Amino acid sequence: MGMIKELSKSIRQYKKDSLLAPIFVIFEVVLEVIIPLLMANLIDYGINLGDMNYVIKTGIILIVLCMISLFCGAMSGKYAASAAAGFSANLRHDIYYKVQDYSFKNIDKFSTASIVTRLTTDVTNVQQAYMMLIRVAVRSPIMLVCAFFAVLTINRKIAVIYLCVIPVLGIGLFLIMSHAQPIFKRVFKKYDKLNAIVQENLRGIRVVKSFVREDHEIEKFKDSTADIYKDFSRLAKLHELNSPLMQLCVYTSMLLALWFGANFIIQGEMLTGNLVSITTYTMQILMSLMMLSMIFVMLTMAKAAGDRIYEVLIEVPDIKDNEEPIFDVKDGSISFKNVNFSYAGEGGKLSLKNINLDIVSGETVGIIGGTGSSKSTFVSLIPRLYDVTEGSVEVGGLDVRNYDLEALRNDVAVVLQKNVLFSGTIKENLRWGDENASDEELIRVCQLACADEFIEQFPDKYDTYIEQGGSNVSGGQKQRLCIARALLKKPKILILDDSTSAVDTATDAKIRKAFREEIPNTTKLIIAQRISSVQDADKIIVLDNGGINAVGTHDELIKSNDIYREVYESQTKGGEE
User: Fold this and answer.
1) Residue 378 burial (10 A CB sphere; 0-12, 13-18, 19+)
2) Tally of CA atoms within 13 A in the half-sphere of 553 that contains its CB
3) In degrees, to the nearest 5, what angle opens at C-alpha 131 toward C-alphas 127 and 132?
4) Rounded-to-integer distance, Cα 224 and Cα 190, Å
5) What are the two backbone dihedrals, phi and then psi, of residue 16, each rounded to the nearest 5 degrees?
6) How many whole angstroms separate alpha carbon 299 and alpha carbon 477?
7) In angstroms, how far is CA 449 from the centroid of its own chain?
8) How is residue 44 annotated by DSSP?
């Protein structure tokens, strides 16, 4: 029930369409049940008795009822399609917006491939089920009941046939669906795996080709699709039992109805027209049963899909705003107080241990450390991409958890280790930093990031189109564009997470010089592998195994810190010793 209640919130403005569709269906069904009774009267009291006036009068009524029934059917189809399409559009909107509120920890819980599957395949399955629910699921049971009572009024003995057939069909369908439900749940997870393989292959296509691993990737894809094929084969076999079960019930009911009906006519207990109407009602009843079996199949699939969507919608964001958030960040000062952090939360293995550090607003701080020393984790706590497990991180003298998230992240610009550009022009990508920035501001920040020099060489300059993921620019060009985009935010704190690793040392020096001269009041944190990138910083932090090993200037650390000195010597002397 919780899943249905949560998903139904996405109906919203389509409630009217969702209500009108079944209303028109009910009118359509009532008319379809009345028509066979009129046809029986037409045969018994018009044609058999030769009363042409009755035939003409009843014929006109039948034509009018058929036209009204056709109109009701068309309108129910129109409103059902509108409601289902609108519901699915709202559902995708709600899932997508929910994901935007997720912290990194929440996103880690659901893989990218799984979220994509839920947004596409799962929503489509729920959409189809919803359309059947407000139209076919209303039509079939009402038709079944109305047609049965119509037969009951004509001949109670024939009505007993249907009372015997319906339980047999119901038990058969229940057994089929109970075996199908676990397979549906399993197969959707395998869809996630298949999507992950495809995404991974396309993103890393250059690596795949450079290592000549196409055959290996094809084999992985084959194994995954073969696994899905096995499950769908089992589902197909289960659903194929529907057809013989339905045919057995349909033809048995029809034969018995015709047999007993013919005998009743001979015995004078029933008229010829009544048998014709009973034959029509028999088809209506059995078609309703057949449609109900299809609904059960669709709802079984939709339930598995709906459960997966429900998981995304009820996920509570790990990071959320304070009840009374602060919107103004005073300055770029940063303070770590007894900070411990674990990706697994309390009790998990600590990635950062006992971090105590004060950074003055406007300082340039270098961060050095070996692979796995938690450099990226360290800076991720400042814009609150993750929350500390213990202790506190303060920006502008206040705990980051007290700020409005949007306000905090607007004043803390981060150029992550994995630079991302989106499909669109260079201008459109840069304006992620400030959507209202003028062309002059774009040029200025690109000059600071040394990006202007290569942009001007493009034929379309700032209107050059960037392919998805920035595949048509080099790694160094991508990094400089991302730095320019971050500068456009005019942040109080600028974090560069190894963001100049793909540029040459001369360009790196130009960028650092521009930072010193143009944004002296911005606090700058620079994670780097090259000592030359941080040696002129106001202070350098040496991280080792998740803790601060040393803090000092370049000259101080050369004299006093073994780790820093070893890195420096390996880079300047080529690691000869």
Assistant:
1) buried
2) 5
3) 120
4) 7
5) -60, -50
6) 51
7) 35
8) I
CA distance 543 to 563: 9
Tokens matching residue 91? 């559902």
What local confidence, expressed as pLDDT, does residue 239 receive? 65
Closest by Cα among 181, 178, 172 to 289: 172
Angle at 118 between CA 116 and CA 119, to 5 degrees: 65
**Model pLDDT, residue 577:** 45
Structure tokens at 98: 């929910």
Interval 457-480 mean pLDDT: 82
What's the one-letter identity of residue 43? I
How many other C-beta atoms are found inside a 10 Å radius of the C-beta of residue 332? Answer: 24
Q: Which residue has the tokens 């209500």?
A: 19
Return the ∠ at Cα 398 (arms to 395 and 402), rounded to 5°.
105
Give me the residues paired with residue 542 across strands: 368, 550
Give CA–CA dist 523/36, Å, rounded: 83
Q: Are strands 539-544 and 364-369 parallel, antiparallel or unpaired?
A: parallel
For residue 499, give both structure tokens.
């963001």
CB 552 within 8 A of CB 561: yes
Residue in 521, 438, 511, 436 with CA at minimum distance from that of residue 481: 511
Can you name the residues that pair with 277 across neighbouring β-strands?
Answer: none
> If we measure between CA atoms, which residue out of 289, 291, 297 comes closest to residue 249?
289
What's the pLDDT tens digit per position in 20-47?
999 999 999 999 888 888 888 788 777 7
Answer whether 268's CB lies under 8 Å from 199's CB: no
Q: What pLDDT, in 10s, does the model give residues 238-284?
A: 666 766 777 777 778 778 877 887 887 777 777 777 777 877 887 78
Rg from Cα positions in the chain? 35
